[in-house]
Amino acid sequence: MLIVAEVRAGELIHDLGRAVLRTALDQAARWQALHPGPEVAVDVSPAQLQRPGFAEEVAGLLAQTRVRAGDLCLEVTEGVLLEPHGTSSANLRALHESGVRLAVDDALILRAVADLGRARQCQVLAEGVETPEQRRVLAELGYRQAQGFLWSRPAGAAAITDLLRSAGVTTGSA
């Protein structure tokens, strides 16, 4: 835990976050060469969102990797949605306007997030769905997208690549 605290406290969080995002986008580009449509979701720390120019940095990485903004979902904590003004809000607004999808990573505030998403005309994504009952409740709350063990355990890049290949597409490289 000390390492995580050190990463969050310093500039390293920005470098690490950029590297994780770049790796995810590089992999998404390889998957999209095999089969159109794979999307990628990446956790973003509040510190990254508080950094001026973060949205432009994301746009630059999308351009470099040639991944469409709509194929990227950035997962944020609910706290960043509560700051109506400031750098985080400006970055979130710019990301949303560019087409990047945003997801809130906390199941405890599902109803509030669904309402906020509707009010701001944003799609919301529920995470950690494990049972058909959870899926039903989320649908009743207005969630049109969800992910979790109900559909699949986390899979590595090689497993996703194999899945896309099994879909019948044989062009491209992994």
TrEMBL record:
Residues 1-174 form the EAL domain. It holds the Pfam family EAL. SUPFAM superfamilies: EAL domain-like. Signal peptide: none annotated. Gene3D superfamilies: EAL domain. GO terms for molecular function: cyclic-guanylate-specific phosphodiesterase activity. PANTHER family: CYCLIC DI-GMP PHOSPHODIESTERASE PDEF, SIGNALING PROTEIN YKOW. This is EAL domain-containing protein (Putative c-di-GMP-specific phosphodiesterase class I). It comes from Kineococcus xinjiangensis.
